[in-house]
Amino acid sequence: MTERVPMVPETEATGRVAALYERVRAATGLPFVPDVFRLASTTPNLLEVVVGGYTNVFADSALPRDTKELVAAWTSRLNDCGYCTAAHSWFLQQFGGSAELADAITSSTRIEDLPVDERTAALLRLTEKVTTGVPDVDTEWTEAARGWSQEELLEAVFCAALFAFINRLVTTLGLAAPTPEPAP
Question: CATH number of the domain at 65-172, out of 2.40.260.10, 1.20.1290.10, 3.20.20.100, 3.90.550.10?
């Protein structure tokens, strides 16, 4: 798949775009700017929305980072966004999630197939409804609230909603999942 919009290379970024790229590198801890951010690089106002959403959702807060990565990866899987599923399954492992869970996310279509406890499954059922746009979340909210604080639930909902948005950008603008290099 080819990107449908031009992307500013890091070496050519100036002014506001260069500053936003630096925020991305600082927030991700990566030595480069992932393509998902570069998709909006020719329009700094839009790039700022993506950078702000990402940095604020993944900031230190009530919900643990590995749980946020799980929500981001599962949301991306449900939205059939290979790029974000791969990226956030990798981040999940970097922040303490197991390789077994990361692998299950890429191949499963049901929460019941994921190696998670019931508390986490309840949170994923809530965020799945957010992801699929089902407005009736009363049952899922009540079940998830038994194991998570109100602040954690709000953060999980924001994370799922943000990734539904980012998934749409990535798939609509043509960013493909990275393909593994063939073994020698």
Answer: 1.20.1290.10
Over residues 112-136, the pLDDT tens digits come to: 999 999 999 999 999 999 999 888 9
What's at 87, amino acid-wise? A
H-type alpha helices, 29-98: 35-38, 44-57, 65-78, 82-94
What is the model's pTM?
0.91
Query: What does the alpha-carbon distance between residue 94 and residue 44 come to, in Å, rounded to a whole number?
Result: 29
Rg (CA), the chain: 17
pLDDT in tens, 1-23: 578 999 999 999 999 999 999 99
Q: Is 147 exposed, middle or buried (0-12, 13-18, 19+ CB in 10 A)?
A: middle
What is the location of CATH 1.20.1290.10 in the chain? Answer: 65-172
| Whole-Å CA distances, 94 to 34, 65, 77, 101, 157 | 16, 10, 18, 12, 22
Per the CB < 8 A criterion, the answer to whether 128 and 111 are in contact is yes
Q: What is the DSSP string of 8-26?
A: --GGG--HHHHHHHHHHHH
